[in-house]
Write a structure and sequence with these properties.
mainly alpha
């Protein structure tokens, strides 16, 4: 019992010191409670802000998806238009080539026409002179036709060439 009495005496003497500790702990508890209440208030504010941001995020995600679809459609449209433009460029290039070919052919035909006109002038002039000299109505090749394929590379020498006189049309036999 002596231990019990000794322990009760300790309890009685420790009671005022426990009360000081309790008061200290109560004070700390109040500080922690007030801090906890502040944290709870901050948490509720954060939750509200998070909900608003989540709502905004959903809206932004839907806007982003809409914009992605728009970008995809615009990309398809641009590619289709670019393909059309490339086709037009190819057609223009082909037309330019055809035009260049047509110009070359035109120039060649023009030169041939000028050559024919010049040769016709020469032939008319020569025939007129021959007609005036010999009083011949027509000049032809009845006695000696021109070389085949107009191949004049194997002509006989001047000495071997026979002398042909133009035959007037009135004397020619048909």
């Amino acid at each position: 019992m002596a231990n019990v009495a000794a322990s009760t005496s300790q309890v009685q003497t420790d009671t005022p010191s426990i009360c000081n500790i309790c008061a200290d702990l109560k004070h700390k508890l109040e500080i922690v409670n007030s801090h906890n209440q502040g944290l709870v208030a901050d948490l509720s504010k954060c939750k509200e802000a998070n909900m608003a941001l989540t709502r905004n995020e959903k809206e932004f995600k839907s806007i982003i998806e809409t914009l992605k679809k728009s970008v995809y459609e615009l990309t398809k449209t641009v590619l289709n238009k670019q393909t059309g433009i490339n086709n037009y460029i190819n057609i223009i290039e082909e037309t330019k080539k055809e035009l260049a070919i047509a110009k070359c052919e035109h120039d060649a035909i023009k030169l041939k026409l000028e050559s024919y006109s010049n040769s016709r002038y020469v032939l008319d002039h020569i025939f007129e002179v021959q007609k005036l000299k010999g009083d011949v109505k027509c000049i032809g090749y009845k006695s000696c036709p021109p070389p085949l394929r107009h191949n004049y590379t194997k002509l006989p020498d001047e000495e071997e060439m026979p002398r042909f006189e133009p035959i007037p049309k009135s004397l020619q036999q048909d």
